Structure formats: structure tokens, C-alpha cells
């Protein structure tokens, strides 16, 4: 079993088709077929159900796939680390983050990182926390900024809390304030026209759960939007929204008020594979993220604090 065989196996599994996988790998199909056949012979098991309509994984193939992805990721990590040490290239960083963080903290992180290390290749994956952890576990990311850690399996990831931030109620700065008090209750928010996120957002699940726990039914005027769209709709006066305090930085078109129920907060954490040593470039990115998170906490005031300081 060698890396070329594993790479061919992963591509066939991805496309479900030997011809498309061969094209992706710039191989002749007979060569790819021989690699798969040799791999099956080495392992003593068939990896694909072959049919005219395509190829699907057998039980043995499904068992091998996550292991093959991890082995390929480890091999690539070693190759890049050695290249960095030899001075052949500066490296690559594959960072994942949630949509909320991509329009706030990550923008600052990437700006600072690229200014200091312009030769390092950067890749960004934007998706929900659970998807990011799956990608991290599959070797597709080097590190990820997540807002939930429920999906972490013990020992799989090193998860470092960075920030704890409140969820706040935002409205248009051009409209009258939703309250004259320093805080607003969930019951009051439920009576205001609301713009709510797509069900794929962990944030949506958290706010829905809070309303259910309080036996409240919010007045929803628009449902299913992504973060940037939600903020723009609020700025235009379509309604209010419950959002992380972090996204308010540099948003003069929005006005925020804190919730009386302070239980609505979230922890932003940095997750990395526990069983893979970071390359030099990834370690620099880790330090950059930590520094920028600290700076964000200082700018945000009472609605955000460093996780270490807050416990």
C-alpha cells in the first residue's frame, strides 16, 4: 500500500466514477484501475461495488476512507514541514471558521497574518462548527475557529477557548431605539419583528431554544438569511435580530442593546487536531489568532471577554 494508491482510492470514492477520478489525477484510467486493484489485493478486500452507473464503497471501503484521508493529510503535512525547513517554500495554512467569525475576527486575522507573512499560502473554509470539526478530523483543515464543541470526541482535538461573548439585540441606528433601558427582556424581543438565521446556524438553534425555554413565540418577519444579509436587513429597518456582539464592531448602521437574560452567550474556541504536530506556518497562524482575539475583547467592552479571564 502506498500514497499513490490511497490518493487514487480517495478520488474514486469522491467522484464515484473511475473515469472522472483518473481525469482529476491526470492518470490514464487503466493505470488508476491497476492501483485500486493492487490496493485491494494488499488489503485482501474489495473496496468498491463496480457497476455501469458508477462505483460505490463497500463496507471495507467505508472503513478505509477516513484512515486514507488522514494518512494523506499527514504525509502532506510532513512534506510541507520539511520543505519549510529546507527553505524551499514558506508553507500553507488551511483555516476554517464560522460565517459570523469570517466577517469579523477572521478578517482581522488574515489581514495581520498576510501582512507579516505574504508568501504563506492561505485557504479559508466557511461553514458551521460541526462541519468544521468534521473537516478538521478528516485532515482537510489545519485549525478551525468554532463556536460549539459538542461534536468533539475526547482526544481527537485540542480545543482552546479564546473569547466569551454575549448575544445582543440589534436594530437600525436610523430608527428609534427599541428600548430606553440598558437591557431588553426576551419577552419584549419576542414582540418585535425579527429576522432569523438559516437553520444551519448554531446561533439559530441557541436562540430558538431560549425562546422555547421561556414559553415565547417570536414574531418572525424574515427567516433563513445568512449573517451578512441579516445585518443588512436590520440596517434597512426590516426588523431586529439577535446576533453575537462581535459582529457589531465597525457597524455604525446598527444599534445594540444587551439582553436582560445574560445566559445567551457563546464561547469562541480554536480547535486543532490532537494527533498532528502543527507546521511552522500553522503555529504562526495560531499565535496570530490568539493575539487578534485578545485585541477584539479589548475593543468590544462589556459584551465580550477573554475566555481565560472569564473562566
From TrEMBL:
GO molecular function: DNA binding; DNA-binding transcription factor activity
Keywords: DNA-binding, Transcription, Transcription regulation
Keyword Cytoplasm: no
Boundaries of every HTH lysR-type domain copy: 1-58
Gene Ontology cellular component list: cytosol
CDD domains referenced in this protein's UniProt entry, alphabetically: PBP2_LTTR_substrate
Pfam families according to UniProt: HTH_1, LysR_substrate
Family in the record: Belongs to the LysR transcriptional regulatory family.
Protein name per its UniProtKB record: LysR family transcriptional regulator
Organism annotation: Agromyces bracchium
Amino acid at each position: 500500500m502506498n500514497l499513490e494508491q490511497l490518493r487514487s482510492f480517495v478520488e474514486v470514492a469522491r467522484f464515484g466514477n473511475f473515469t472522472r477520478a483518473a481525469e482529476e489525477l491526470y492518470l490514464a484510467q487503466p493505470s488508476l484501475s491497476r492501483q485500486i486493484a493492487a490496493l485491494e489485493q494488499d488489503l485482501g478486500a474489495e473496496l468498491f461495488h463496480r457497476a455501469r452507473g458508477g462505483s460505490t464503497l463497500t463496507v471495507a471501503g467505508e472503513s478505509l476512507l477516513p484512515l486514507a484521508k488522514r494518512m494523506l493529510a499527514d504525509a502532506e503535512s510532513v512534506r510541507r514541514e520539511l520543505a519549510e525547513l529546507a527553505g524551499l517554500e514558506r508553507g500553507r495554512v488551511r483555516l476554517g471558521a464560522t460565517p459570523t467569525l469570517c466577517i469579523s475576527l477572521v478578517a482581522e486575522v488574515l489581514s495581520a497574518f498576510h501582512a507579516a507573512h505574504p508568501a504563506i499560502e492561505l485557504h479559508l473554509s466557511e461553514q458551521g462548527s460541526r462541519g468544521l470539526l468534521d473537516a478538521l478530523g478528516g485532515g482537510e483543515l489545519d485549525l478551525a475557529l468554532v463556536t460549539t464543541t459538542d461534536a468533539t470526541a475526547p482526544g481527537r482535538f485540542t480545543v482552546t477557548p479564546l473569547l466569551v461573548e454575549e448575544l445582543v439585540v440589534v436594530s437600525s441606528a436610523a430608527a428609534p431605539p427599541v428600548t430606553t433601558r440598558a437591557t431588553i427582556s426576551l419577552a419584549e424581543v419576542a414582540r418585535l419583528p425579527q429576522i432569523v438565521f438559516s437553520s444551519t446556524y448554531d446561533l439559530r438553534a441557541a436562540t430558538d431554544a431560549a425562546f422555547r425555554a421561556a414559553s415565547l413565540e417570536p414574531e418572525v418577519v424574515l427567516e433563513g438569511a445568512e449573517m451578512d444579509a441579516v445585518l443588512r436587513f436590520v440596517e434597512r429597518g426590516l426588523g431586529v435580530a439577535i446576533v453575537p456582539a462581535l459582529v457589531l464592531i465597525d457597524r455604525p448602521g446598527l444599534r445594540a442593546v444587551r439582553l436582560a437574560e445574560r445566559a445567551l452567550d457563546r464561547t469562541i474556541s480554536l480547535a486543532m487536531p490532537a494527533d498532528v504536530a502543527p507546521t511552522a506556518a500553522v503555529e504562526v497562524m495560531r499565535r496570530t489568532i490568539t493575539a487578534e482575539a485578545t485585541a477584539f475583547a479589548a475593543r468590544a467592552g462589556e459584551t465580550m471577554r477573554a475566555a481565560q479571564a472569564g473562566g
